[in-house]
What we know:
The complex is a heterodimer of chains A (286) and B (240).
Chain A: H1 2-31, H2 38-56, H3 59-82, H4 91-112, E1 127-130, E2 133-136, H5 137-159, H6 161-171, H7 173-178, H8 183-209, H9 218-230, H10 236-256, H11 263-277
Antiparallel strand pairs in A: 1-2
Chain B: E1 2-10, E2 17-24, E3 29-34, H1 40-48, E4 52-60, E5 63-64, H2 70-76, E6 78-81, H3 93-100, H4 108-119, H5 121-125, H6 136-148, E7 154-158, H7 166-181, E8 185-190, H8 193-199, E9 202-207, E10 210-216, H9 217-222, H10 226-231
Helix pairs in contact in B: 3-6
Amino acid sequence: MLFIDLLVQGLIQGSSYALIAVGLTLVYGLLRILHVAHAGLFTLGAYIAVVVTNTLGSFWLAAVIAPPIVGLAGMLVYRLLYEPILDQPPFVPLIASIGLFICMEEGFRLIFGPYGNSFDEAPFSASLSFGPVYMQGVEAATVVIAFVLLGALAVLAARTRLGTAWRASVTDPQMAQSFGIDIVKVRYLNFFIGSALAAVAGVLVALLNNFVEPTLGSVPSYKMLAIIVLGGLGNVKGTLVAALALGVLESFGTIYAGHLIDRDAIAFLFLIIVLMVRPQGFFGKA
Amino acid sequence: MLRLENLSCGYGPMRAVHDLSLTVPEGSVFALIGANGAGKTSTIMAVAGHVAVQAGRIEFDGEDLTDAPAMARVRQGLALVPEGRRLFGDLSVEENLIVGGYARPKEATPGNRDKVFDLFPRLAERRNQRAGQMSGGEQQMLAIGRALMAEPRMLLIDEVSLGLMPKVVDLCFGVIGRLRDEGMTVMLVEQSTQRALAIADNVCVLESGRTVYQGTGEDARDNPGLIDAYLGLDRQEDVA
Lengths: 286, 240
């Protein structure tokens, strides 16, 4: 049963990767910016979960307000950081983004303290069993929530007029404008949705670990870059598959190769191997 | 309907078009002719709002559009069929049409879409196909159809014939003629002088961004060689 356990653990991990990575790939698709500071927004979501729960006493309140607050923060990042430098070569917004990410980590340290925060009373510590497979309730929730939210996003993109306009803006922003699409609004929407999804991942990871520290986003920040490159930059479907694949690979790798290689190094070994064989990623660029 | 007054436009410090003045009357076809790099596309893209106006004015239907964003111009009734078609390649035919009608109320989309399908039955057969996978001719039909979804009063059409089979070009020009007969105003950029002259009510010849000839399509048709002289062409050389 170890095999199934590892597979399930991998899917749980992969689901939270997917929630974070999708926002990153959406930003890349629309603006061709590697939005490193996205991982800082993920950390912000986790802090809101812990701090609001501890001070106001309601986890549900925290879980409900974290995504919209972080979504608005994402829109602010676009407006204040990226919009003024959109016509610069790509490395300029990349450097700005790395700078913002470092500032955010230091900001978290100054505001919430350097040692990390935990829930005063951990919510949802129940565990579930599905036949021989045991998991925490939060782990099951992570998978379900990721599938529901990403499924809803897929329906929005594929079946609605707004989603069609969104995809058109990704393909050819100038022509999209020529037919009356306000691409600035599309960008705000893009940052709002991507950041809100990262906040959901942050809330779930805070619950899973019952611990949030200023550098919570450091490892995800570069691991997410590996995922979106594997998925084909800007390709949403590819990114989701890459996120799940990496989660599963890490889960197995930790057990079977853990004595040789660190868990976080597995992601990059995988990235290097895939890019040697398929430089365009799993599915090619969007 | 469209008036350009001493229009100069270009990219950054570059000036692609100098001091162009012209008037396109309502319900007529106006052809901009000239060699590669003469400034035809820059002119049409300036009217669409994608090339910076450096001096002069663009007036459409009595309103000054010189500084209006591209997004606002489609609401005023200007729709673009750009050079190279520039369809949304990952989107289906039907989705491209939805985007074309984005500036109009959602309820108008099905009716307008059916009109486009009447005009180009081929598109109805391909409605679920990805635009990028279609043939050049089908893509050109879709580019025209997408523009019509915006319920324009004036179409800006750039190089409709480029790289297409003569049969498809005939079809496209047939549609343009039909639209004009129904009252549509059209500004046309063409490298194929004969095609353009066959349909144009008015003609303007550009050379290196400057106007070298303006007149009626009738004059140009009655005096074969007139336009070619301005283009510096021999009739035999005009193979397009």
